[in-house]
């Protein structure tokens, strides 16, 4: 009786586990992005990501400053994992970075970061700017602390993704040394590697984080939930050709994971904003100055 129950329940649990973690998708053929909507209806939604940001169509806006907390702190221990779709980094020990301000309503905490790349340096990023692709895109996924990591992935406003594009540099970016070493240890699907003294998140990102595009969108992998406030930074992270090439060497089921980017999706009725980086205090001073000049002229 018990054995009978086990033989019936275990396969169900395995299927539920796989389904819940959306392992049954890929980037080619029958599992490719055009088929995702057959199993995951949200992938057919009207507010999907990534998108092609056309700078002539964006709206200028002065958002409050983004406040980065603990981004400068050392990640004492990180866990790098090959999940078959990307390389993902989680924080095991160390203060979890937080962000608030900008277009965000609430405080968001680090969940994980991962990467998207292409078969060569001419493509690989998910979001594009003026039809231009970039060779690699890093997504720092953060959840609204009001909901917690699991509930946040199902609620509008639950997640923000800080997205960093890369550019080719003649020199290696030394801040990526630990990550690059880790890539060699996670070549196979489901392999992982603990990395001590990983460095800080500040080191992996750009210095200028004032200038960014922002829009409301979705996860770029199934279940494609439309719960993400995207923050796409304008300045790129420089990496060498060799450093980017290392990402293409990791394996997925049935071969190398040479590309893992979803094609751009229609913007439909959404607006994309550009934060010009002028702080509110400066705006206030400018407004006060204009009022003062106006009063002086009229007295
Ligand atoms: Zn991503």
Automatic annotation (TrEMBL):
Reactions that this protein is recorded to catalyse: hydrogencarbonate + H(+) = CO2 + H2O
Transmembrane regions: none
Cofactor: Zn(2+)
Domain Alpha-carbonic anhydrase per the UniProt entry, residue ranges: 23-276
Class of this enzyme: lyase
Residues annotated as signal peptide: 1-22
InterPro entries cross-referenced by the UniProt entry: CA_dom (IPR001148), CA_dom_sf (IPR036398), Carbonic_anhydrase_a-class (IPR023561), Carbonic_anhydrase_a-class_CS (IPR018338)
EC number: 4.2.1.1
Keywords: Lyase, Metal-binding, Signal, Zinc
MF (Gene Ontology): carbonate dehydratase activity; zinc ion binding
Family statement drawn from the similarity comment of this UniProt entry: Belongs to the alpha-carbonic anhydrase family.
Biological role stated in the UniProt entry: Reversible hydration of carbon dioxide.
Protein name as annotated: Carbonic anhydrase
Organism: Hypothenemus hampei (Coffee berry borer)
